[in-house]
Write a structure and sequence with these properties.
29 helices, alpha+beta, three-stranded antiparallel sheet, 778 residues, four-stranded antiparallel sheet, Rho_GTPase_activation_prot
Length: 778
């Protein structure tokens, strides 16, 4: 017999004899029913309403998973371009980003492209099987990557490696990875107050997890109706910031053409506004209404505890467990602040503040409802955290709500953690996965190459031992290929299989090697499963009243349906084997098995209703995700239009791309003319040093007078700085700079730019480029 999984092998030595009493078989058999049902669900020959609904459900879940991944990629592109365009506008510059736009925005059908050969695909299949089934490797990698690298890795982990969001095995493996990441986070951070709050790869990972299908489904079902009811009241103004209330009061008086009394100046401090009796009179009823609305939101969330996705509750449970172990004297109140920080800060509150981004509402809420939703989220956050009112003193007026609901919320947060573990079912899930011959993930070439590159980059931290399976596979697959172009970035089906474990051929083989299961148990379960399949295929057999198993087997064996005939003959032989082993007795009409078949059919009847309801729920989720996809695409279309206009304007006026004027849609387009390069402009080492642009130089003092720099701009927004030495034709070095890269460095407070021989001040080089190239004509 070929070797099977480690779990099975380890229990081989403890295998029991096949004989046993009827009582022991009964209790064990009943406990294994669920396990064998998992295998029975793979049967594709049954064509009743339940099997059709289950197929529909699987297809729907697969589509949700695929669409979620597309949305994640789109959101990343939107974030990237949004930040770049914002920087350009802030700097009063417009950049021709043709190549950037093509790489980020154009929808290009992939060509045959660059494709790994069969040997390389097999190596990647081994590598990604290991990564999926041993989540600690991905957990370790997530701890070492930078914040700029995490989004690309998360795309692969959340939506590809564990992309089937409704498949228990992948979900449980992903949660196992989370446990490892969280455990390390608790070990590395000593400051309790900063745990899980900073914008780190770990926090980004947790937020991304909440945006998967189950989390979106929860938000839609729990919050959508309440938020929509609120935003219907477009004119309901619940502003409680005294300064804003005062300003609105003054504005209203002026609109009514009323002269302002002397004691009502246009501009006042927050303290003066808060002390104004009229302002206080306006705010008082608003405070009461805000508390009522906040209470309705809180009650809705508390009542929905059973709808909360298992994975989110399990993460809450791990946060509680890790906090208790790391901080032994930690109070329940402090533990709840961490749990609430994840549940509200990362999951619920973002959807309340921006419901349109979560497709909970159609369109953007009006000004007043938008402000009310923000205040509600602030109140809920103050319930979770120890409230501080240093920045927003006016929020202290809502403190009575916080004080009266704190215990109620903490009780809810603790109850969120009350879910069971999944390790026992994960073991069976792994059996099931190994029994499949088509364990496949859909993955792009760049996802493979990027993950490969990160693994190689951090190889020493991840797999220092030469005997490590990860190290062996990385050595075999070799160096990581470079990223391919968008056109060549094909999505491929990558078969996953292990170098060290031969897949099990069937569930029976796996269960036989478990010391709690005998051959007779397997035979009994399989017999029962075939009877259920036969009755599901011909429901009239069960409509005659009591179930007669022998008669059902005989009817199937003599029917005109070849599949039923095969099953009928097989199950008759299995009944005889069980009789010979004294497991069942024909004298009592196979009473025990008949009861269990009846129970299983009743369970499947209820299951059909459950599956139907789940389909309805997930169809709504799928529509929401598709709507969000359309919303993101419309944002990208707006960016395309903006950047296209910038390019057109650049060509029309011959400018270098600086300036923010935009062509109107109705303008008549002129025939484009070729944009000429700007420059060269020469600067000496002494000039740049004197102006503070060179902040540090590695050029020897006696040679600096021979060093000069040539600045050119081949296309708008792109600059080449070349370092030359007198008497030499070729440049010593050249650096290609993008304007928005420099702006991003400036915004991120990066002080200097390394040119190998010299360090340049980022802000001052930006100023020089602006001064040198702005408004120059081609």
């Amino acid at each position: 017999m070929p070797p099977i999984s480690r779990t099975s092998r380890n229990s081989t030595s403890n295998r029991r004899a096949t004989a046993g009493t009827t009582d022991s078989r009964t209790s064990k058999r009943y406990s294994m029913t669920m396990l064998y049902s998992m295998a029975a669900e793979q049967d594709v020959e049954v064509e009743d309403d339940l099997s059709k609904a289950q197929r529909r459900l699987r297809e729907l879940k697969s589509r949700i998973s695929a669409q979620s991944k597309k949305n994640f990629v789109l959101e990343r592109d939107v974030r990237y371009l949004d930040s770049r365009i914002a920087l350009l506008i802030q700097n009063r510059m417009a950049l021709d980003e043709k190549q950037e736009v093509e790489s980020h925005l154009e929808d290009v059908e992939p060509s045959d492209g660059i494709f790994p050969d069969d040997r390389k695909l097999q190596q990647y299949g081994n590598l990604f099987f290991l990564l999926q089934t041993e989540p600690r490797h991905i957990a370790n990698l997530c701890r070492h990557v930078s914040l700029t690298e995490i989004d690309t890795l998360l795309q692969t982990v959340m939506f590809t490696l564990y992309g089937n969001q409704y498949e228990s095995r992948e979900e449980h493996l992903l949660l196992t990875m989370f446990q490892s990441v969280l455990s390390n986070q608790f070990e590395q951070i000593n400051d309790f107050n900063s745990l899980l709050r900073a914008n780190t790869p770990v926090s980004r990972m947790m937020t991304t997890y909440t945006r998967r299908g189950p989390g979106q489904s929860y938000l839609k079902s729990v919050l959508s109706e309440r938020i929509n009811n609120l935003i219907e009241h477009k004119d309901l103004n619940l502003e409680i910031n005294p300064l804003k209330v005062y300003e609105q009061m003054i504005k209203k008086l002026e609109e009514e053409n009323k002269s302002l009394p002397e004691d009502l100046p246009r501009s006042v401090t927050s303290e003066v506004a808060a002390a104004n009796p009229d302002v206080q009179a306006i705010i008082a009823p608003r405070i009461k209404m805000l508390m009522e609305i906040a209470n309705s939101f809180l009650q809705t969330i508390i009542d929905s505890i059973e709808q909360t996705p298992y994975g989110i509750r399990w993460i809450c449970k791990q946060i509680r467990s890790l906090t208790k172990r790391k901080y032994v004297d930690c109070s329940e109140y402090a533990i709840c602040t961490l749990i609430g920080g994840f549940f509200f800060l990362r999951f619920v509150n973002p959807a309340i503040v921006t419901p349109q981004a979560y497709m909970l509402v159609e369109g953007i809420p009006g000004k007043h409802p938008r402000r009310t939703l923000t205040l509600i989220a602030k109140v809920l956050q103050n319930l979770v955290n120890k409230p501080t009112y240093l920045k927003e003193e006016y929020m202290i007026m809502l403190n009575p709500f916080v004080e009266s609901n704190k215990q109620r919320l903490n009780k809810f947060l603790m109850e969120l953690c009350e879910v069971g573990d999944f390790y026992e079912s994960l073991e069976m899930d792994q059996y099931m996965a190994l029994s499949k011959k088509d364990l496949i993930i859909n993955i792009t070439l760049n996802e493979i190459y990027n993950t490969h590159a990160l693994l190689v980059q951090h190889q020493e931290e991840l797999a220092s031992s030469e005997k490590s399976h990860l190290r062996i596979l990385l050595d075999e697959v070799g160096p990581a290929p470079p990223q391919v172009s968008r056109k060549e970035n094909k999505t491929i089906e990558l078969p996953l299989f292990s170098r060290w474990e031969t897949p099990i051929q069937d569930l029976a083989t796996a269960l036989l090697y478990d010391n709690s299961v005998t051959q007779n148990d397997i035979l009994y379960m399989e017999t029962k499963s075939i009877f259920v399949q036969i009755i599901r295929s011909t429901p009239k057999m069960a409509e005659r009243g009591s179930i007669d198993l022998f008669q059902i087997a005989e009817t199937a064996a003599t029917s005109k349906d070849a599949t039923l005939v095969r099953k009928g003959i097989k199950v008759k032989e299995m009944l005889r084997e069980l009789e010979d082993a004294s497991v069942i007795d024909p004298k009592d009409g196979y009473k025990l098995m008949t009861e269990e078949v009846t129970q299983e059919l009743a369970h499947l009847g209820n299951l059909r209703e459950i599956v139907t309801n789940e389909i309805q729920s997930l169809e709504s989720v799928y529509k929401t995700i598709c709507d969000h996809n359309n919303y993101l695409r419309s944002q990208l279309d707006s960016y395309k239009a903006y950047l296209q206009n910038v390019r057109q304007q650049t060509v029309k006026d011959g400018s270098s791309g600086f300036g923010t004027s935009i062509i109107k849609v109705g303008d008549k387009e002129k025939k484009p003319t070729k944009v000429k390069a700007l420059g060269p402009y020469k600067f000496t080492h002494a000039q740049l040093e004197r102006d503070g642009i060179i902040v540090e130089s590695n050029v020897p003092e006696n040679r600096r007078q021979n060093i000069f720099f040539i600045f050119t701009s081949p296309i708008p927004g792109t600059f080449i700085i070349a370092l030359h030495y007198k008497g030499r034709d070729a440049a010593i070095l050249e650096m290609d700079l993008k304007l928005d890269d420099l702006l991003e460095k400036q915004q991120d407070n990066v002080v200097s730019l390394d040119l190998e021989y010299v360090q340049l001040n980022v802000s001052k080089i930006l100023s020089l480029l602006n001064k040198t190239f702005a408004k120059r004509k081609t």
